[in-house]
Amino acid sequence: MFKKILIGYDGYEGSLLALEKGLHLAEELKAEVIVLSVASIPEYAETVSEVEEAKEQARKYYADVLSDVERLVKGKDLKVQTLIRFGKPAEVILHTAEEMGIDLIILGPSKYSYLRRRILGSTADKVVERAHCSVLIMK
Amino acid sequence: MEELWLQALIWFTLALISSFISFRLAISAALIELIVGIVAGNTIHPEVTPWVNFLASFGAVILTFLAGAELESEVIKAYWKESLVLGFISFFAPFLGAWVVTQFLLGWDLRQAQLAGIALSTTSVAVVYAVMIESGLNERPLGKLILAACFVTDLGTVIALGLLFAEIGFYFWLFAVVTLVVLFILPPITKRYFALVKNHPSEPEVKFIFVILCALAFLAVKGGSEAVLPAYLVGAVLANLFLKNRELVKRLRAATIALLTPFYFLKAGSLVDLKAVLGSLGVLVVLFLTKTVSKFLGLYPAGMLFKFTPRINMYNTLLMSTGLTFGTISALYGLRNGIIDKTQYSLLVVTIILTAIIPTLIAQSFFYPKKEDLDRFEKKTEQRG
User: Fold this and answer.
1) Which of A130, B38, B132, B377 could link B138 by a cystine bridge, Cβ 3.0 to 4.6 Å?
2) Cβ of B129 under 8 Å from any chain A Cβ?
3) Tens-digit pLDDT profile for residues B345-372
4) Contacts of B133 in chain A (CB under 8 A)
5) Closest residue in chain A to residue B353, using alpha carbons only
6) A residues 45..64 contacting B (CB < 8 A)
7) If residue A80 lies in a helix (H) or strand (E), which one and from where to where?
């Protein structure tokens, strides 16, 4: 049914749950998995070096975060690719899913407060609203 | 003496608040500092003392130097034709557009209109770069071309600001000759000097750059020009050296962002008179439209000439309509030198803030370049050889 699954992962508790359950589902379905971490970079920057520095720091942080994937995949018969991309999480998830021909996106629940979600919206809400494919929110 | 510490406490608290908001919202500190400065300037009125003025001016000079030092000469060489055409159009179209509109529609005098033209002609390389990272465009030929064109636009802005209001006399020519000589001899001298002192804990490289920039800033101001002009040019001629020395850029940037640029952006914001802006919302809309429409009228046809697909062309036009640092530097120069009044300054700065935000939001939401667009453009570029 689902051949290519994208799992959004940022190292927080909710997304770890999505990662664990998503990998389990992918194993059942014999689907290919892409684990995507999206790092924010400063918008409206002063200098290019500011952006470069933010990218470098994020790359180090997410390289560490994505080591969880290796641990969870060990011993499983799964084709998994990890990716670090930069920008607004919802936009990047949507574009990556479209670009890679994903047919299921799996995300964890929002880590932000109810108030912040109401004011700024959550990544999950934006992805559900605009994704070209099915979206599963793990809780 | 305690007054000095109180003033320092107020300014650094504003800088700290800006940093924290910037961290929470993932928006650059520069924009937040401008906005916090506007709020503070219209509520608690922090005092702009001589030392605040110095730190702010030095911040603008170093920021401009850093912008010049990010210029990748290889990229300009690779796309010299496209980047020169797009860059100059991106400068001249809004420069002339804003000049004409402010002088003949809004009734500003000649010098005020020229200053408005310069302040609204800018493109922010850093804003464009940050947007392009999201689409991965910065790694592709089209992204490099757009960035090269942005550098050319910035060069147009600093040259216009440095020369248009200069008083041509002995000291101006002295400044011009010394700057040209320094630009010629500085790269080999700096290379040798950096090799000699490399990475000593007393930061001799950073201090060397400060000395060169202060000397040229003194000559520029003495010659009736503007300190950011030599700063950008020195940055540009040392760019290759700095691109190979990322650690030095990091250290220089850390010193600048912690101590200098907060004063520049907070001060630039604090001088904005919100009442004046609210009383002239119509003018604000005219200024915003003047910049974006004139950029569109200049850049879109040029993009067609280079066979950009409609989506890429619109994306490029919108990104090159952004502006932040050089726009505020130009407006502040105009206010400091009595060319524009506080209301005109306030309108220009708020317009510049809007042009940093609105075009990028539209570009990201509606004209995000699709992979097939980029592939098509690159195929065409290859075919053209």
Assistant:
1) B132
2) yes
3) 999 999 999 999 999 989 888 888 877 7
4) 41, 51, 55, 86-87
5) A44
6) 45-53, 55
7) strand A80-86
Q: Which candidate from A43, A55, A95 shows the least CB-CB separation from B26?
A: A43
A114: contact with B, CB 8 A cutoff? no
Locate tokens 């000397």: which residue?
Answer: B215
> What 3-state DSSP class applies to B201?
coil
| Predicted ipTM > 0.90 | no
pLDDT by residue (tens digit) across B39-77? Answer: 999 999 999 999 999 999 999 999 999 989 988 777 778
Residue pLDDT, tens place only, A11-63 = 888 888 889 999 999 999 999 999 999 998 888 887 888 888 888 888 999 98
Q: Which domains does chain A have, with CATH numbers?
A: 4-137 (3.40.50.620)
Whole-prediction pTM? 0.89
Domains of chain B, start order: 45-384 (1.20.1530.20)
pLDDT at B179 over 60: yes
Chain-chain contact of B134 with A51 (C-beta, under 8 angstroms): no
The average confidence (pLDDT) of chain B is 91
Q: Which residues of B touch A48 (CB under 8 A)?
A: 70, 125-126, 129
The CA distances from residue A124 to A108, B127, B341, in Å, are: 8, 26, 48
**pLDDT 10s digits, B338-350:** 999 999 999 999 9
Contact (CB<8Å) B27/A47: no
Q: Which helix (H) or strand (E) holds B112?
A: helix B110-119
**pLDDT at B32 exceeding the cut of 90:** yes
Spell out where chain B has E strands.
none
- Contacts for B18 with CB less than 8 Å, ≥ 6 apart: B29, B32, B33, B36, B262, B265, B266
H-assigned helices in B306-341:
310-319, 325-336
CB-based burial, A93-114: b 16+ in 10 Å, e otherwise: bbbbbeeeebebbbbbbbeeee
B135/A43 CB distance under 8 A:
no
pLDDT bin (cut points 50, 70, 90) of residue B381 is low
At B64, list the tokens. Answer: 């401009």
Q: Do A49 and B129 lie within an 8 Å CB cutoff?
A: no
A88-115 pLDDT, tens digit per residue, is 888 899 989 998 999 999 998 876 666 6
Instruction: Say whether residue A86 is in contact with chain B using an 8 A CB cutoff.
Output: yes
Rounded CA separation B265/B336 (Å): 15
CA–CA distance, B143 with B129 (Å, rounded to integer) = 8
CB contact under 8 A, B126 and A46: yes
Alpha carbon of B124: minimum distance to chain A alpha carbons (Å): 8
In this predicted structure, what is the pLDDT of residue A118? 62
